[in-house]
Specification:
single chain; mainly beta; Immunoglobulin-like; 3 helices; globular
């Protein structure tokens, strides 16, 4: 759905995604709209620094007049950056997700590699906050990984995704570890392991020469309570 504004007129460009059309076509009651999300993927907030200068006001005007994306029918391309709602009206800072390894290099026959993600406060912008508010503590995380290259494990047990996109991206829900961070945030340890990659996929997605090719993929992690995200870049090496 795209919301287009022109002066005082608001136009809602609303389409069903491919998945929504399939559910509607089934005509078995499975198509039910029970919730919605909003996002502002078009906006680059790095362009705006509110110091009150003329140039900043011009930047704000540019942001306000940024063209809105047309509503896509592919659910995997929509709302990469969702807006989140918090109940505390006095909230001025948000926690961050910090990774022990933001990038990982694994051989194709590698044993599972452990990555830990911790919910912390940004010490440079803590604003007197000592503990993460309860409503922002991530008790669960959504992890997204390309099934063509990677599988995820927790406590050495291969995890089963709750969903798989049409592009082959596995989506997992993992609950946080029992121990919280020093500021009361969620913490999650999980393992990454390459799957068996066929010669066809090596030829299609890799770079380099045969016998020493590499494939680069990403694991996207979203805290389901805070809405904060982080990414692990994973390089798989042919051996």
């Amino acid at each position: 759905m795209g919301i287009l504004t022109n002066d005082e007129t608001i136009v809602v460009d609303c389409v069903l995604t491919d998945l929504g059309r399939r559910l509607l076509a089934a005509n078995d009651g499975s198509f039910q709209i029970v919730k919605f999300a909003l996002g502002d993927d078009e906006i680059d907030y790095g362009l705006f620094n509110p110091t009150g200068s003329t140039s900043d006001l011009q930047d704000a005007a540019i942001l306000a007049n940024t063209l809105v994306f047309e509503a896509p029918t592919n659910e995997d391309l929509a709302l990469k950056y969702k807006l989140v709602t918090y109940t505390d009206p006095n909230l001025t800072v948000l926690p961050k997700l910090e990774l022990t390894n933001a990038s990982v290099s694994l051989d194709e026959n590698n044993e599972p590699f452990t990555v830990e993600i911790s919910q912390l406060l940004n010490t440079a912008n803590q604003n007197g906050l000592q503990k993460i508010p309860a409503e922002l503590v991530d008790n669960s995380f959504m992890l997204e990984a390309d099934s063509k290259f990677l599988q995820l494990l927790k406590d050495s047990i291969v995890q089963v995704p709750f969903s798989k996109t049409i592009f082959g991206i596995n989506q997992y829900i993992l609950f946080r570890d029992d121990v919280l961070t020093t500021v009361g945030g969620g913490k999650l340890s999980f393992q990454i392991q390459p799957v068996v990659i066929t010669d066809y996929l090596w030829g299609l997605y890799s770079v380099g020469t045969v016998g020493a090719r590499t494939i680069t993929s990403q694991i996207r992690i979203t805290g389901l309570q805070s809405g904060q995200t982080a990414e692990v870049v994973v390089t798989v090496n042919e051996v």
